[in-house]
Amino acid sequence: MANFAEELWNSIFTPGTSPQLVIATHISFVLLACCLVWLIYSTRSVHFVALLVIAVLLWATVTWFIAELQHAKLKDNEVLAREIDSEKESGKENEAKTLKGQESSEKKPQGRSTATKTVNKTTKSRKV
Fold first, then answer.
1. pTM of the prediction?
2. How many domains does the chain have?
C-alpha cells in the first residue's frame, strides 16, 4: 500500500496517465457511488438520485478522457521545441516565396473601378 501511495504521488508530477492514477480515480468514483446509493436508501430523496446520475456520467466522461489520453502520443518539451524550430524555418521559406509572389503581382497593372452615387435623381460617378 505504501508503494502504491508513493507511486500515486509521483504520478502527479509526470505528464500523462499512470496506472496508479487511473486506479485511484476509479476507486474514488466507486466510493462516491456507494455513498450516494446509501444516501438514496436512507433518505429516499430524489436529489441524491440526480447526484448519482451526475456522478455516473462524470465517471464515464473521465474514463473516456483517460482512454483518449492513453491513445494520444504525448511529446516531451525537447521534441516540441524541435518541432517549433522546424516550423519557424519552414515559415521563413514560405514567407520568402510569398514575398516573391507579391513582387510579381505588384508589377501587373491593377484594374480600375468606378463608384456611383445617386443624389436627387442624378447619378454621379467617380474613379476609385
1. 0.56
2. 1
